[in-house]
Amino acid sequence: MKLSAQGQLRLAAKLAFAAGAGSLLGVAQAAASTDAPASGASAAAAKDANLQLAQAGTATGAGTTAPASTGTPVQLQGVEVTGSRIKQPSLTGSAALQAIDSKEFKLEGTQNVEQLLNSLPSVFAAQNNTGNNGSTGTATVDLRGLGVARTLTLIDGKRVMPGDPRGGPEVDLNFIPSALVERVEVLTGGASAVYGSDAISGVVNFIMKKDFDGFSIDAQANRTDSGDGTTQDTTLVWGSNFAGGAGNVTLYASHTRFDAIDGDQRGFSKFFITTPASGDRHITGPTSSMIKNGRFISYDRLNAGLPFDYMADPNGSGTFVPYDGRKFNFAPFDLLQRPDQRYTLGGFAHRQFNEHVDVYGSAMFMDDRTSFQLGPGGTFFNNFNVNCDNPLLSAQERKLLCTDAGLGPTDNARLQIAKRDFEFGNRENDTRHTDYRIVFGLRGTIIDDLSYDVSAQRGETVLAQSFRNELSLSRTQQALQATTDANGNIVCKDPTGGCVPFNLFQANAVTPAQVDFLRADGFEQGNTVEEIVSASVNGDLTPYGIVSPLAKTGVGVALGYEFRKESLELRPDQTFQSGDQAGGGGTIPPVTGNFNVKDYFGELQLPIVEDQPFVKSLSFDTAYRVSNYTTQARYTHAYKFGLKYFPIEDIGLRGSWNRAVRAPDIQELFFPNSVNIFGGSDPCAGAIDPATGIVAGGATLAQCQRTGVTPSQYGNIVDCNSGQCNAEFGGNQNLKAERAITRQAGLVLQPRFLKGFTGTIDYYQITIADRIGTIGANTILSECIQQGAFCNNIHRGSGGRIWGPRTNFVADTNINTGFLKERGVDFSFHYNRYLSDLGLGNLGRVDLTFTGTYLNSFSQKNAPGLPIFDCAGLFGLTCGEPNPRWRHKLRTTWLAPSDTIIAGLGVSVQWRYISSVALDKNKTGTILASGKPDLIDGEIPKKQYMDLTMTYRLPISTQDVTLRFGVNNLTNTDPPLVSSNSPNSIASPPFGNNNTFPGVYDSLGRVFFLGVNANFR
User: Fold this and answer.
1) DSSP 8-state secondary structure symbol assigned to residue 497
2) Torsion angle of C-alpha atoms 805, 810, 814, 817, degrees rounded to 10
3) Residue closest to 852 by CA, chosen among 878, 891, 815, 819
4) At 280, is the secondary structure helix, strand, or coil?
5) Is 276 left (phi over 0), alpha (psi -120 to 50) or beta?
6) Before 165, cis peptide (omega within 30)?
7) Percentage above 70 pLDDT, the chain
């Protein structure tokens, strides 16, 4: 079928959007080629259809024109690409851009968009559905590993509201239905001058399917090789053109469900791994000394020089026996995959009245409910006073706790109690996010090639969260003060609130009435609101003669104004505010705050030379934005300069220099100080090794005295329970904006002699100054010990602990401090050809897509005066989740010939590679070194995964129905395992869970998926 010139142009533009900017040249050449074998018009049409199916994967912007079938270059109409508001004929920008086609979602078998993004080499793991302890119930993206707050997320070029009132500006990607995504454009590098704050590490722009005409259903189910973790996703899309094609309405609805996977459903997560101070082996088994029958540490006996560590007799005799070291295993209760149920609903519409007025709008809604669970709670080594005449104490217990310690009947025994309250059931956190987003706007042509876009939008996220089956600390203390009434009944001294005496002195003696009184369920709700009004004009000034003497294309410009208001309110109940839940992690104070910002921005693109000897094209671009905040950030300035040079059509050079900014978000500004947990250990904890005279934590007495340890405490400090110590976190309304300089330089290859091939190599360097963040509790501890710095931030409590009661903590609140500097190189290529073009006969089509990132350095300085450390190739207590030096993914797709019996069949294989990483604490001679070396956790070896997907387009001439079947992690590769318990609590929340890093490595094993996509026109 011979297409008209206009038809060819439409096809080229469609292919450009489908394949991504990087594969434009090769795709268009192959699509329009007339020398490919075909048998009639129907074969040609089928071949074009197969071509569209093949364009799945990631690519980088490289193409400039789309050759038509005659071989005459046809210039693309103006399109807007992430990274610029100027519509331009070229899809090659001065900064690296990756495009992920919607079909890659199908080939990867993903049902959450963050799963696909996390597989990109330039993206690091963040919140996702495999997180349990430390999860917010959201899904986020972290470009370059610089933090989710430094990645800006857009939908169709417009900001998306924050996804959780407890977090920062990061967007909840659960809000975005994967089946509605046309493509994802990822711009890595500073983009603040174009899009505003938060775009320091880059921009993720989701381009949604609009102008849909017909009905579509996409359904998929996933299940692991172990027969669990079933997930189901169904999306319905309906669209219709009206007004003779001048208008369109596209509506969608989806439902997604994830089944839970408990920790005991995998061998590697049935127990938490402990690496002892010797660092030479892994120990698996119960790790928590919070036990079912209760453990009791008597301060009075300790002060009297008597044995002080006891437990209730497990046989239920009502007596105390010496603690025998038994532990409780709570690992099976942690989830490898959270249960989740999500509904999304929305639509997109527009009506063009004439070339000057196109009214458009969208409405999106999500209701997402998930829960995570932890093992039964109880008293986490909390301090209590028990009256010596308590009738629940047996004679033996009263003698041991009181009489032997010199206490009388009217005195109180001071106890530290650790009892696991099985009677309450598992602790459960039920989290619900309800999101709304409405956009309304006008756009059109002003005159000639000048156009405008005016819009208003409002986005809101509503949180409702409950934390159930927890123990009340205040009511526990009340219930431990018992006496006998006139009738001989055992009652509370303070009967208010219906107090029931708590009998934890005898195993298995807790009654339902006691549970009902002691239970402390907490609830909090809150919301974030983002309101934006923006107006911009952009255009090509060629018609006005503003053209370089050596170029054909004129100057492109864009000017605009944006007003944004962010507000937040978090309303925890009194239980959360008081921190009364024994295992709740700390107090959660109410939060209220808001700020406004006015942005003025402009862009300019100047083609300098075109189609001259030794210069196919040379162009310059720049952008500037000034922002006026109502916070201490006040005025900020962001700007960029870029240059593109193609000496010939086959090869090009590009580079950009950006000054980016990020203003503090609402939580960083307004969150009140509160004590919560961090993953770590106390270097001053443990018993003294007689051979060295040093405690198991590795610090000497002199070093520990700097942190507030007394000589009598040294050697008797109990390490943080389950690797969870206390830290004080909070906001700071005096925070300034952080600044970043981003440099990029790249090479673009699109050789005409190798049809269908495009490739890019891009160097990047990002330096962030005045970093908004914390010093890091582990850094504070190590620096106090090693250098005597930050020692005032350490607040030890009874027994020298930095955990347990909220008075024991390391202060680590937000400040502008230190810097981050990251350098690396991105590699990408895309190659697709019919095998017949290579002389191999009618064997179908092959599509290759490769992306890789080399992390050269990831330098950090947490505060002035501290040494610089480099986390590239490392993981651990300071560097956090793994930062591999090299990651890549290679997808190879084969499509069967269109004129054979297997027409419509496609097979795709993906190879994912993650290089090895070393443990940071083993880096002797650096600030990263901590305690004794951990040899067994010293390295996570390289990991490789193979994924297989098969697709089949049914031979139905009137409908478009494609089946897909796939297996991810084909070889069932196990995740790497590292210690998650003190003294080496490496795989600690939020990104470490179940002895591994589930966001980085496949933790569920082999996963099968089966899906169908049907389009009815």
Assistant:
1) T
2) 180
3) 891
4) coil
5) beta
6) no
7) 91
User: Cα separation of 334 and 374, whole Å?
Assistant: 5
Distance (Å) of CA 990 to CA 9, 691, 980: 49, 37, 12
> Tokens standing for 830?
């895309």
pLDDT digits 0-9 by tens, 640-667: 999 999 999 999 999 999 999 999 988 8
Q: Collapsing DSSP states into helix, strand and coil, what is residue 858?
A: strand
- Provide the token pair at 749: 């290859």
Is residue 303 within a helix (H) or strand (E), and if so which, with residue range?
A: helix 299-303
DSSP code of residue 633: T
Query: CA–CA separation, 692 vs 669, rounded Å?
Result: 46
What's the Cα-to-Cα distance from 613 to each of 315, 616, 618, 653, rounded to whole Å? 93, 7, 12, 16
> Global pTM?
0.86
Alpha-carbon span 525 to 236, nearest angstrom: 31
Q: How far apart are CA 358 and CA 350, in angstroms?
A: 7
pLDDT tens figures, 148-161:
999 999 999 999 99
Rounded CA-CA distance 237/343 in Å is 14
Neighbours of 39 (CB within 10 A): 12
Beta bridge partners of 603: 558, 623
**192 neighbors 625 (Cβ within 8 angstroms):** yes
State how far the alpha carbon of 189 is from the alpha carbons of 121, 306, 334, 599, 872, in Å: 14, 63, 37, 20, 18
208: Cα within 13 Å, side-chain hemisphere: 23
More confident residue, 605 or 66: 605
Q: What are phi and psi of 594, to 5 degrees?
A: -160, 160
Task: DSSP for 154-194, please give it.
Answer: EETTEE---S-TTS-S---GGGS-GGGEEEEEEEES--HHH
Cα–Cα distance between 683 and 867 in angstroms, integer? 20
Residues whose CB falls within 8 Å of the CB of residue 168, separated by 6 or more in sequence, listed in order: 148, 149, 162, 665, 666, 667, 668
pLDDT, tens digit (0-9, with 9 covering 90-100), for 927-947: 888 878 999 999 999 999 999
Percent of the chain with pLDDT over 90: 66
Q: What is the pLDDT of residue 924?
A: 87
- In the structure, what pLDDT confidence band is assigned to residue 315 with cuts at 50, 70 and 90? very high
3-state secondary structure of 589: coil
429 vs 470: CA distance, rounded Å:
10
- Mean pLDDT over 907-920 rounds to 97
With H, G, I as helix, E, B as strand and everything else as coil, classify residue 531.
Answer: strand
Q: What is the token pair recorded at 662? A: 């990020």
Q: Identify the sign of the CA torsion 41, 45, 51, 53.
A: negative
Residue 590 phi, psi (nearest 5): -70, 150
Is the distance from CB of 38 to CB of 44 less than 8 angstroms? yes
| 3-state per-residue secondary structure call for 690-747 | CCCCEECCCCCHHHHHHCCCCCCCCCCCCCCHHHEEEEEECCCCCCCCEEEEEEEEEE
The pLDDT value recorded for residue 863 is 83
- Chain segment 536-555, per-residue pLDDT in tens: 999 999 999 999 999 999 99
Burial classification of residue 691, based on how many CB atoms lie within 10 Å of its CB (0-12 exposed, 13-18 middle, 19 or more buried): exposed
Bridge partners (DSSP) of residue 826 are: 762, 853
**Average pLDDT value for residue range 978-1004:** 88
Which of 99-103, 749-753, 988-992 is predicted with the least confidence, judged by mean pLDDT? Answer: 988-992
Tell me which H or E stretch contains 813. Answer: none
From the list 991, 1000, 997, the residue with the least C-alpha distance to 978 is 997
Predicted local distance difference test score (pLDDT) of residue 864:
80
Classify residue 41 as exposed, middle or buried by CB count within 10 Å of its CB (0-12, 13-18, 19+): exposed
> Can you tell me whether residue 598 is helix, strand or coil?
strand
